[in-house]
Design brief:
It contains twelve helices and 20 strands. Helix content is 29%, strand content 26%. Helix 8 runs parallel beside helix 11.
Length: 428
């Protein structure tokens, strides 16, 4: 009992430390904003590492490392950033500059911000200009084919990286093998949005310029070989409500107002219509009925998953198109992975109540202690699709986590809500 109590205390201390860290970061951001810094990113993460804050100080692109010091005995904040850390920051800086297509002559600086209680000390050019202008580092981390290196989960079929002009996007090899659909999942690359929405933002509700979002949609439509009037958008509110769409719905959500609300899933069997749903950590679900030539696309966050959105879609396709489970090929798209997705006791209990078969809860939940859990939405949705009758070999589960790759994919959790939206697209 004593040992259990000690673990609980440690967990509580970790939770308190995270809260304090978030508070300190807000304090630092407020300080930087007051001094004229234009903040572009917070908690930027990629395979190369992470940076606390990225912003512009005049013409300088600045990478900020935030360090907390409770006393001088722990050393200065600048001393806390050793050579190995500096090298990682160089690699992240190179990745960021490549993703956002920064000009080669953009001046770069590495600053440290030290926080001691209420005191904020800003140390400019903490490691010297030479650290950030090493040409060898600036050329790193693009593969020979020009696509970005990503953090991938091993043991899964890889999603395919594609480029069309400036636009980089992802596809599922399993869906391509059906031979009857066009589909993609967007990345952050190839759009025109600025700031936290940079650059391929597909949401009109994230504070972005309407003209920028319009242009981003035009670029995606160009990749898909369709017009804006062919795309039909969802109206997501974490429900399991579905809508069967036809040619009459073309363009809704982009060039026409939607006359429907609270729709998290779309279905169609009309060639030429492209379904669109939107994400920044939640789970995209793709469905292709190869026999009846029908498709569906659905948004499934934790609420949609615990309500079994995947089963709802399969049942609706059976009702409308006569779809059988053996006719379906499905894909679970880029979203937050188990190791990045921490949830509270009430969410964990909702999943335990729904996934009651022996061993299922252990497959999707890790108990971290202190009322906190890690939740595996990928596995939960895979279970749902298999229980709906879709064969395991006809389901592709993504190998890309939005949070692990937040420099390449928008992540609500990694950015703490400062982000744009990704898009899933599917049509016959």
């Amino acid at each position: 009992m004593r040992r259990h109590g000690m673990c609980g205390c440690k967990t509580e201390e970790k939770v308190n430390t995270r809260k304090q860290g978030a508070q300190k970061e807000e304090q630092v951001c407020a300080c930087l904003l007051s001094r004229g810094i234009r903040i572009c990113e917070r908690n930027f993460r990629c395979r190369q590492g992470e940076i606390d804050i990225i912003g512009y100080d005049g013409e300088y692109l600045v990478f900020f490392e935030v360090k907390y010091r409770s006393s001088d005995r722990k050393g200065s904040a600048a001393e806390a950033v050793g050579y190995a850390k500096q090298k990682r920051i160089c690699r992240v800086a190179d990745y960021y500059r490549a993703v956002h297509q920064c000009r080669e002559d953009t001046p770069i600086r590495f600053d440290v911000v030290a926080v001691d209680k209420e005191q904020v000390t800003w140390i400019k050019d903490a490691c010297g200009a030479s650290v950030m202008t090493d040409a060898a580092h600036r050329r790193l981390r693009r593969r020979r084919d020009g696509r970005m290196e990503l953090y991938r989960h091993a043991g899964r079929m890889k999603m395919k990286q594609n480029r069309a002009g400036e636009v980089e996007y992802l596809t599922f090899p399993l869906l391509e093998q059906t031979g009857i659909v066009r589909h993609l999942f967007t990345t952050r690359l190839g759009g025109v949005s600025q700031g936290v929405c940079s650059s391929m933002n597909l949401s009109y509700a994230r504070g972005d310029e309407k003209e920028a979002v319009d242009e981003n949609f035009r670029r995606i439509a160009g990749v898909l070989g369709c017009g804006l009037e062919d795309i039909v958008c969802s109206d997501q509110t974490h429900t399991v409500n579905l809508r069967v769409v036809t040619r009459q719905d073309g363009g809704k959500g982009i060039v026409r107002s939607r006359d429907y609300h609270d729709i998290d899933g779309l279905l169609t069997d009309e060639p030429g219509i492209v379904l669109a749903t939107f994400y920044a950590d939640c789970v995209p679900l793709y469905f292709v009925d190869t026999r009846n030539r029908a498709v569906a696309l659905a948004h499934s966050g934790w609420r949609g998953t615990v309500a079994r959105m995947g089963r709802c879609v399969a049942e609706k396709m059976k009702e409308v198109y006569g779809t059988r489970p053996e006719d379906l090929t499905a894909a679970i798209g880029p979203s937050i992975c188990r190791s990045c997705y921490e949830v509270s006791e009430d969410v964990a209990q909702a999943f335990r109540n729904e996934f009651r078969k022996p061993g299922q809860a252990a497959q999707i939940l890790d108990d971290k202690g202190g009322g906190k859990y890690r939740l595996d939405l990928w596995r939960a949705n895979e279970i749902i699709l298999q229980e709906a009758g879709i064969a395991a070999e006809r389901i592709q589960v993504t190998d890309l986590c939005t949070c692990h790759n937040s420099g390449y994919l928008f992540s609500h959790r990694a950015s703490r809500g400062k982000r744009g939206n990704l898009g899933a697209f599917l049509g016959l």
